[in-house]
Amino acid sequence: MQDFDECGGTNGNCTSGACSNVIGANVSTPICLPVAINCSLALGSGSRSCNVTLTDNAAGHNITFLLTGPLAPTLALNMSSVSFGPPSDPKRFTCASAAIIGGNAVQCIPPAGVFGTNLAITLTVCASAVSKCWELAFRNAGVFHHPNPVISSNTIRFSGGSNSAGITAPSNVGGDTVVFSGTNFGVTTFRTSPFYKVQYRSGAVVKQCIIDANTTTAQISCTTQPGKHSKLCEKRNWCC
Fold this sequence. Notes:
Blueprint: E1 18-22, E2 31-33, E3 42-43, E4 51-53, E5 63-66, H1 72-77, E6 79-85, E7 93-94, E8 97-101, E9 105-109, E10 116-127, E11 132-138, E12 143-146, E13 150-151, E14 157-158, E15 166-167, E16 177-183, H2 187-192, E17 198-202, E18 205-211, E19 219-223, E20 232-233, E21 238-239
Parallel strand pairs: 4-12
Antiparallel strand pairs: 1-2, 1-11, 3-5, 5-9, 6-7, 6-10, 8-9, 10-11, 10-12, 13-16, 14-16, 15-20, 16-19, 17-18, 17-21, 18-19
């Protein structure tokens, strides 16, 4: 049976509350449930808003949104997981930890290294009595943002070398360790996530630079691949 995502694309644009996707069901019509206050996102103990921006993408941030209405206690009791992501991939990330606080607030602590804009919450609840789970897309509760990576100018270099605006590989055999500095790189995300990568370009040819264990939130360290390539510049030819 096809699992149709009732909350995908434009189908899930509920004007209030949460869009309910029944996992495993071939249903094409979204169900909008009145279980969330619009614009109820908050960072830590801050005021609630439609739009929350985190100051960095380190671990430990605390994001909450409210559940209201008669379904709130049931949702809280049966919560399985909390995920979030952009509109094109709303379950891209899973909260490192999730909990119900005070009976009506869902708390999500994102993992370190996650970044992006317009990230909305999806709550998964499961009812063991009927062996069924529902995904509730709280897109109207508000969105939050993690800072995107920023590359510092004139910091590209070979490992152990000096900072520069551009470097030239000594040969086309690959295996050169290239380093550049910046902020918000997010160690865990860059090294393990399939969604993010570092590439360099020579004309129409794009190659991936393999990120290594010396990468930190302030520095990318990666190894070039075999093949002909031109001068490598952190602004013009590098992208992430």
